[in-house]
Amino acid sequence: PAPGQAGNAVLVGHVDSQHGPAVFFDLGRLRGGDTIRVLRADGRTATFTVDGVGAYPKERFPTARVYGGDAAARLRLITCGGRFDPRTGSYPDNIVVFATATR
Prior knowledge:
Elements: E1 7-12, E2 16-17, E3 20-21, E4 35-39, E5 45-57, H1 63-67, E6 73-81, E7 93-101
Parallel strand pairs: 1-6
Antiparallel strand pairs: 2-3, 4-5, 5-7, 6-7
């Protein structure tokens, strides 16, 4: 679904790149009660309230919680997290923000 529609809208973005911070660099700073606004392709803005933020090892990604759910309009924001591993060129975790539509 698009953000604001029934179900879980999922947006995934990079935390950084070889050139520096990327779109979700500060994602882990969000806290419960914070507001997120998403400008939709149709020009409307969907507004969400953060329910919580979690860090999950990639092998224990909370798939059912991210993609499952009910008819409520929810938002899931996902990026990489943890300490960058130069050997593998990746991060060991995912940061996930869970939010519910408020308008």
